[in-house]
Amino acid sequence: MMTRHPPVIMRLVAHAAVYALAFTMLFPFLWMVSTSLKTDKEAAETMAMLPASPQWGNYVRAARSAQLGEFYLNSSVAALVTMLLGVAHNALAGFAFAKMRFAGERALFLLTLATMMLPIQVSFIFAYVISHRLGYVNNLQALVVPFLASGFGVYYMRQAIHAVPDSLLEAGRMDGMNDFDLFWTLVRPTVWPAISALAIFTFVASWNSFFWPLIVIDDLSRKTLPLAVADLAAGQYIQSWPERMAAATILVGPLVLVFLVMQRSFVRGIALTGMKE
Asked: What confidence tens digit (pLDDT) does each residue in 35-78 have?
């Protein structure tokens, strides 16, 4: 006869496994932060995680040497504008697919889903040709306009908005609301966690984008942070490894901050879109 393990032991084992997995994911980040606070000699000769004497000056020297202020501004503008406009476009399109009926609705939705099956790099050729004809090449507009809508974003918002009761919208229509009023007044507050989660996805994707900026941006003054990271890895701006790690830590900082601020809404948004229709 098999004996069952006490629930407490099972919970301890589960927590231990989760913490171990979390540590393996956090270790590279912790190593980067630790190295950023070491001297050049200490980083080369010791594998200790904690520096003997933290070198906070590495961050100041890294920011000056790598011109991080200019790169930060470019990436921040591109990521914030893409996030705001992209979420607005995707949410409105998701509302239309979820709660409105129009000719060709199903065909358009299937076409939207089909775009998710193609690697995004496939569309870069067409996006570059269009950006060149519009005069966006080597400008920050090229980092924003091609990503104002996405198949994933539209589908994600459609699934979230589909869970909003139709009776709520019917009550709004009886009060004389038009479609936009229904979205802004009734739907938006209800699916706000999903909107927050999509905002995080969009911000991180724009912030981390490397291949597309590499294609459309040539001027140093318009480069973004991922391009700066590549130059740092090649030693173009900084030769010191601790200073390189300090610069990399500064670059990752906004992503960590955005996630910590919006963590609760992010988790609720993921749970909301997982509801069955």
From this structure: 888 988 888 877 778 888 888 888 888 877 767 778 888 988 99
> What is the distance between the alpha carbons of residues 28 and 34, in angstroms, rounded to a whole number?
10
pLDDT in the model for residue 267: 67
- Yes or no: say if 225 and 251 are a contact pair by the CB < 8 Å rule: yes
Domains of the chain, with CATH numbers?
A: 67-273 (1.10.3720.10)
Burial class (CB in 10 A: 0-12, 13-18, 19+), 131: buried
> Which letter does DSSP use for residue 46 in this model?
-
- Residue 152, Cβ neighbours under 10 Å: how many? 16
**DSSP class of residue 225?**
H
Q: How far is it, in rounded angstroms, from Cα 188 to Cα 51?
A: 48
Q: List, in sequence order, the alpha helices (H) in 100-224.
A: 105-115, 124-134, 141-144, 151-162, 166-174, 179-181, 188-190, 192-208, 211-216
Q: Is 130 left (phi over 0), alpha (psi -120 to 50) or beta?
A: alpha
**CA distance linking residue 90 with residue 155, whole number of Å:** 8
